[in-house]
Input
Amino acid sequence: MDNKRTILAVVLSAAVLIGWYAIVGPPPVEQPADNTVTEQTQENKKSTEAVKESAVSAVPESNPEIAAVIPENIPEQNFEIATDFYKIILTNKGASVKSLVYGERNIDLTVVNEDLSNKGNFDFALHFTEDDFIKGSSLENSVWAAEKQGDDTYIFSINSVIDGKNVVIQKIFKFNKSEYYFNLTYRILNQGQDLVRLPDGKVIYSISDFLGPRLKSYKGYYGRLYSIYSIKDKLKKANKGGGGGFLGIFGSKKAEPVKSEKAAVEWAGILSRFFVAVMIPQDFKSDSVIWDADNDTGYRTGIVSNLKEISAGSKIENSFRICITEKDEKKLATAAPTLKEANDVNNFIEPIRAFVILFLNFLHKFISNFGWTIVIFSIFTKLIFLPLTHKSTQSMKKMSALAPQINELKTKYKDKPELIQRKTMELYKENQVNPMGGCLPLLVQMPFFIALYSALSNSLGMWDAPWIFWIKDLSSPDAAFSIGGFDINILPLLMTVTTFFQQKMTTMDSGNAQQQMMMKMMPLMMLFIFWSMPSGLILYWIVQNIVQIGHQWLVNKKGK
Output
């Protein structure tokens, strides 16, 4: 009887407990005592209040650990931001920069490249696997909840799933009125009660897969883009495809999906012909960089933050300084001292290049056309180097005059090369001729010419700048028309003709067949080299040739 009563009591007790549980519900879960969780809860309350204003519904008070739940069908929103250097349109689709217009010339850097099928925006994506890094994830196409704080801060939030657990991901943009950079913070909130493990044990942050401005072609030497990063204050350009061996002839050319390098990375991003876009870590150190190595895709470059797990009720937060500016050493250095290396110019050449650009811009204030600015600048530099040029041409003229006598020595002492050399030097000394006299003045000018080449090829002022007639862009070849799909560039042809006449006037006819062949071949070689070069650079060279022809005519006339 006692056993039956005991069993009955247990059954009745269980029934009462089950009924009580069904009516009242589970007991509340106590908050952990950890300070991080307490701070997170306070942040969540603030976030909840702000998100309510952006059509984001708050979770019932019975579960205060979760800050917000983002409902479906959030409308797309755009936000316009204007600073001293940027005009930006933010969108809550992908929490990205839909448009970024730079400078007084309103140059749009969010360019669509149809060959690579890029999105034409700065998506500032974060990835948890290498596969997502290459192919993208749903986060980039989803609509995020948006909130504006003050005049300069924008917060985007979205719910996501990692390791089967719900997390909240945020991007926080903060803009500066008068700087060539802005700040971006990524935040991942694990507000549940379970540990979240990241699939590959890392988070990859990247700006975009492409960088403007608009060019006629993004192939070849002048249009090519690069993934770039810095290690120990040194700029490194990432390679596309497989190892091509010497000159790309030997070795495997098989493209790899991604490449990476393990090292302390100071910054990483994309380098185009005229611009740089990089991410600079602010509150953490990254020990590796990863980039898209496929030849047929974009130039996405990522900074890797190693992170295996996010504990319950905690967050991870990584901040970056985002610098998007033209390839100017001073402007880049305002974002970070080490960033000046992204200028991609030799340190020895940079001061001369900077002077050339400064002088061209000065002339442009008085001559509104950059084509005529280059003409005036070319004449000016020719006059500056005229003494050296005159000395060089005089030396070559004397050398040409001695050529018949040197040929006689070679014939007379053909079996005695040492004697030929000694007799030749005696002949030079007797006639006061320095065999290096024609080369040394040119060697002195070489650093200037290299800096000039860099300035005219990669100066933003040349981009989309017209001259006259068919020449609409001094940064591109001057294709006047096409024959069978092949562009005919007029300026390289004019340069070849003027080079031929200049050499004809400078070099006397010595009867040396080898010298005559070289004189004929040199202009053709220059035609091949300069054919695809920017028209502004070739214009400079043509003016130099014309001035040199006039100078040589005076020298020859005076000599007669």
About this structure: The CA atoms of residues 70 and 536 lie 54 Å apart. Residues 78-343 form a domain with the Beta-galactosidase; Chain A, domain 5 fold (CATH 2.70.98.90).
